[in-house]
Amino acid sequence: xxxxxxxxxxxxxxxxxxxxxxxxxxxxxxxxxxxxxxxxxxxxxxxxxxxxxxxxxxxxxxxxxxxxxxxxxxxxxxxxxxxxxxxxxxxxxxxxxxxxxxxxxxxxxxxxxxxxxxxxxxxxxxxxxxxxx
Length: 133
What we know:
By secondary structure, this protein is of the alpha+beta class. It has helices spanning about 10-20, 25-40, 65, 110-115, 115-130, and strands at about 45-50, 50-55, 70-75, 80-85, 105-110.
């Protein structure tokens, strides 16, 4: 992606439709987490991939998968910030869970947690990874 090409974004209408079955508190957490991600990694492209909100380096090999920064997942009413390359991230606060070879996730308890420094630090670290280089 060149600097002249703006990153893609998902519309408010698409997000509303995606979260239509979620309670207001869950929608608020997702929207706050989205704002945190976009403020921390403004160059990230945003799209629905794998049925979740996905943030990625558009210029990466294999796009949203190879260039993944993070994803916002909602499962059974809980919000998770997931990282396909999470095993490569520094996690001094021990926020990341998961036993897969690479993928890790953090449970997001509320909107305050979604906007906090620990989450920003994880997103910032994930945005600097370029494992395809």
